[in-house]
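ingest -> validate -> predict -> emit
validate: passed (alphabet ok, no gaps, 294 aa)
predict: started
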Amino acid sequence: MRTEQQMMELIRSVAQNDSRVRAVWMNGSRTNPNAPRDIFMDYDIVYAVTEMESFLENPDWIDCFGRRVILQTPENMHLFPPSLGGRFTYLMLFEDGNRIDLMLVPLQDALRYVKEDKLTVVLLDKDGILPQIPPPSDENYHVSPPDSFCFDDCCNEFWWTSTYVAKGLWRGEILYALYHLSHPVNHMLVQMLSWLAGTRTNFSVSTGKCGKYLKPYLTDKEWEGLMKTYSSGSEEAVWDSLFSACSLFSKAANEVAKHFSYCCAQQMEENVLSYLQTVRNLPKDAKQFDGKEG
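emit:
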């Protein structure tokens, strides 16, 4: 595996030897002083270029970075429409395990784009066009305190979408149930747990994408409860995971609400929990909601 020094020298030398590339900077986890370092950290690189066409007309120009396992160019994909405007990205995973996410940015956009992320380190500026960049900081990614409206919306979304899981399970639509458990339900759970972590750290930390840095800010019991929300796939296991999510969300929401002196929608929670339990016990051939004929 090429070392970080070798990769950085390669990234700089390719840019230095290409007159179309006028500036280079890096952002992401490798510039974050608080991110844990490991062999899977990406190199998130930006090349500010005089023009884009010649790069795009010659897709093999990136071969100089090494032998690839796989390449993705999101702006060329039809299933996922491009969303970066005039920018273009090469996501490259190499055989030695290194990965470069390389974005080309038109030079005229460089001054604006280089300021978008505080986790930025300038690697090359051939023409001295980039502004003075302060030391990288992840403060833009710190958990933000919720206002009462966001808190209420999170609670409402969690309890509302939990009913979709129950409906899917009763119908035998396991994929539908799993989707809603792992997406809106767990997304709101991780959001609430991130706010909980914020209350415990004076909102001075980032819990990372998908809550990947969340564990140190939870108790062992809370972390164990979170792990129980990820189901093995059987119907009963999904039910158990759903109720584990409900229990953990309720405790976290009450602690966050207490911290901010917000009100928890206790009646909504009780109503939904009763509904979920009723659906769990409802016979599969029920003709009405309480399972009784009449």
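The CA atoms of residues 23 and 134 lie 17 Å apart.
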